[in-house]
Amino acid sequence: MFDTHLVKPGTAVRLAEMPTEASGFHDDRDTARDEFRELRAELADLQYNLYAEGRRKLLVVLQAMDAGGKDGTIRKVFERVNPQGVRVTSFKVPSAEELAHDFLWRIHKATPANGMIGVFNRSHYEDVLVVRVDRIVPEEIWRPRYAMINEFERLLTASGTTVLKFFLHISLDEQKQRFQDRLDEPSKRWKFSRGDLDKRRQWPDYMAVYEDALSHCSTEQAPWWVIPADQKWYRNLAIARILVGTLRRMELDFPDPEEGLDEIRIE
Ligand code: AMP
Ligand code: MG
């Protein structure tokens, strides 16, 4: 379950050789949907338990090219979870205040507290992705960031956070299709921006910087998975499996109740 699509720490990632299409388990979408629904319900129970235990937290990092499915993943995978237990943070172009600080400042503030699931829609990785492609800072600034990110994530895990990172891997063709849908469907037009086409033209540059980030920053404590994401049903199932499997392994416990509750009689 965990090894499928995992970037083994220390390996050099070649995205062109990694599948964007359903692969690994369940080629059949009906079986996949059934399993996904069960996992989604279990995720809700596990989140309740994580919250009740109140000693640990989970951080889910999502990265993808435009139209890669970050929003859809959040909507579908967390559909059943109590909204009080999940906090989603979307990282946009940094504000002036954010730019006046180090690149992890805004990120650290958004990390989950005890009992919570934090979801990052984009993340600190933008600071070694778009920042490199658009040459926003020079190499002597971005180069050391890989090590800083690894140390930062080590700090989080040492403080009781389980960190899971997913790159939603779509093909250039699938992106074209999804952009076209956004143009054709009036209710989706708002999602389209001309800037997305510039980024599409820079696709090879993005693949190269993603490969560096995935290669340098998939660690034992905070691994990356490259999820085939051309089919939404497969993407959702693959991620739900890893989330549920991870929470199961945490062997969550309910805190001990107060003593003597059996004797209580409510008048
Ligand atoms: P969207 O996810 O479509 O709302 O777009 C958010 C935009 O913010 C994307 O184009 C990102 O590349 C950009 N962005 C996010 N973080 C950073 C960052 N640290 N530096 C520059 N641009 C960023
Ligand atoms: Mg966008």
What does this 3D model show about the protein?
The protein has one domain: Rossmann fold. It is 44% helix and 12% strand. The protein contains eleven helices and five strands. α1 runs parallel beside α11 (232-249) and α2 (70-77) crosses α11. The protein is globular, with a radius of gyration of 20 Å. Adenosine monophosphate binds next to α5.
State the end-to-end CA separation: 51 Å
| Secondary-structure element string | HEHEHHEHHHEHHHEH
Strand content: 5-15%
Q: How many helix segments?
A: 11
Q: Summarize the amount of helix as a percent range.
A: 40-55%
Identify the bound ligands.
adenosine monophosphate, magnesium ion
Broad structural category: alpha/beta
CATH 2nd-level architecture: 3-Layer(aba) Sandwich
**Which sequence of strands runs across the widest sheet?**
2-3-1-4-5
CATH superfamily: P-loop containing nucleotide triphosphate hydrolases
Counting structural domains, the number is 1
Instruction: Give the integer mean of the pLDDT values.
Output: 96
CATH topology: Rossmann fold
CATH class: Alpha Beta
Radius of gyration: 20 Å
Q: How many beta-strand runs?
A: 5
Low-confidence stretches: none
The description of the largest β-sheet is: 5 strands, parallel
Q: What form results from the Cα inertia axes?
A: globular
